[in-house]
Design goal:
The protein is of the alpha/beta class. The protein contains eleven helices and 15 strands.
Length: about 375
């Protein structure tokens, strides 16, 4: 057999083996819904559960077992939770490439929501930093529920007293994204010019205020109906994207934080200083780029930055208690105030997600939970 034919057969065999492995992995992937027994939970709590990927119709409010805190955990009675686009990415399992991690056919984890604020109800025996009765906020998968447990050394901190639970819940993912993008990637300095594309959304409303708190001169890009709101939270200049193209303005920016990703990188370069930094945060709706979706643009940004002086890349937020503490201090100092658009009860998480998916939220969309004694 010639070498060429042998290589051909080998390639075919490897491809077939990979296909069979992918098929088996797909068919055998399951989740807790597959083996849920008929027995009712001994200590029930209400939570949003989804057994299959799909639209918000897959979300169900169910009674499930209330979690028990481990030795290093705090058990938090959730008083408010906030939505982020990542919730609908997990719910839909899109872009599909993320299913390599979240479950090929069905979501491995059937609980939704990350941002929460609430009151500590119990603590594990090793917990020293929190006690029952403390009001806290943080991030933990499964936040759309009456209770969550979170390790004391993970993303959970005390809530400032003058902040409502709704305000505190709206902070973790969106504000940490804005903070890390501007501080760690953008290295924003006092007096620098910063442009925030998508200044009126969850990340954008925090980014405008955080950039201002760093002493930057902020321009916010938003639509007509949001101009006043974006000005009121600290943007010295606003660009109405329905009337003006932000990549054609005369100004040059030191940092561009892009929450929309709707313009080509070459266009954005027109408004960047030679040493400017472009930080892509995200963009796109549920119907955009289902296979690899938001991942195309960061690859382009990295490749482009090899050939130009400007720094271009994407930032992926990492929840941690240190940055929650930084944000708590900024809020206590009155430099950052969460902007809340709408609130929904826990039973209406599907409606809340449908609203967020329109891409029209002004600030944060928040879930409020009934307080003890009101049920
Ligand atoms: N990289 C990360 O770690 C990370 C973390 C969090 C979020 N993200 C991603 O970042 C993106 C933004 O998140 P978010 O929470 O801010 O979303 P969001 O709250 O749903 O954003 C909605 C806002 O986007 C604005 N918008 C829509 N089209 C626009 C346009 N063409 N120009 C300017 N503004 C526009 C809307 O304003 P109008 O109604 O006025 O159009 C609305 O206020 C999402 O794609 C999300 O997945 C990434």
């Amino acid at each position: 057999m010639s070498l060429k034919r042998a290589l051909g057969w080998s390639a075919l065999a490897v491809s077939l083996a990979l296909l069979v492995a992918a098929f088996v992995a797909y068919r055998t992937s399951g989740n807790a819904c597959d083996d849920r027994s008929a027995a009712a939970p001994a200590r029930p709590m209400k939570a949003i559960v989804y057994c299959d990927y799909g639209s918000a119709d897959v979300l169900k409010l169910e009674d499930i077992e209330k979690p028990t805190p481990g030795d290093d955990d705090v058990l938090v009675r959730v008083r408010a939770a906030a939505l982020n686009p990542l919730d609908w990415h997990y719910m839909r399992g899109t872009p599909y490439i993320m299913r390599m991690e979240t479950g090929l056919r069905k979501p491995k984890v059937t609980r939704l929501g990350v941002d929460f604020a609430g009151t500590v109800e119990a603590v594990g025996k090793n917990v020293t930093q929190f006690k029952p009765g403390d009001d806290v906020f943080g991030g933990r998968t499964g936040a759309f529920a009456e209770y969550v447990t979170v390790r004391q050394d993970r993303s959970v901190v005390l809530k400032p007293q003058d902040l409502t639970f709704e305000q505190a819940a709206s902070v973790p993912v969106a504000a940490i994204t804005a903070l890390q993008g501007l501080r760690d990637e953008g290295n924003v300095q006092p007096g620098q010019k910063v442009l925030i594309n998508g200044a009126s959304g969850g990340v954008g409303t925090f980014a405008v205020q955080i950039a201002r708190s760093f002493g930057a001169d902020v321009t916010g890009v938003c639509s007509t109906r949001n101009l006043d709101m974006v000005r009121s939270i600290g943007a010295g200049r606003v660009v109405d994207y329905t009337k003006e193209d932000f990549t054609r303005v005369d100004e040059r920016y030191d940092v561009v934080l892009d929450n929309v990703g709707n313009r080509s990188l070459l266009d954005v370069r027109h408004v960047m200083n030679p040493e400017g930094k472009y930080i892509l945060i995200g963009g796109g709706g549920p119907d955009d780029g289902r296979w690899i979706g938001p991942l195309i643009k960061p690859i382009k940004a990295v490749v482009l930055s090899w050939f130009v002086r400007q720094d271009m890349g994407m930032h992926l937020a990492e929840l941690n208690r240190e940055d929650l503490t930084v944000l708590r201090d900024l809020m206590q100092a009155g430099k950052v105030t969460p902007v809340i658009d709408r609130t929904y009860p826990l039973s209406e998480v599907p409606e809340a997600i449908r609203y967020l998916e329109t891409g029209r939220a002004r600030g944060k969309v928040v879930i409020t939970l009934e307080q003890p004694g009101t049920e």
